[in-house]
Amino acid sequence: LFLDYLFGVQELYRVQLGVSEKNTPAIKLYERLGFQREGYCREQYLDRETGDFSGTISYAILREEWLSDRAESET
What we know:
Blueprint: H1 2-9, E1 14-20, H2 24-33, E2 36-46, E3 53-62, H3 63-74
Antiparallel strand pairs: 1-3, 2-3
């Protein structure tokens, strides 16, 4: 619904996001929604509990891709 709002009402051309490489459920969701992986920033965040660094994966989706996926799912 949020992407429908961003692309339909706000008429954005592109939506992008960053997600921790350790957040597997979110990554699966974004890819299922049609987001494309565009980049990786290594060792961007420090986990204070473990002392380990983790990276961030960048994803984006374009309006045409979202509309195309929506049209296909309606048929």
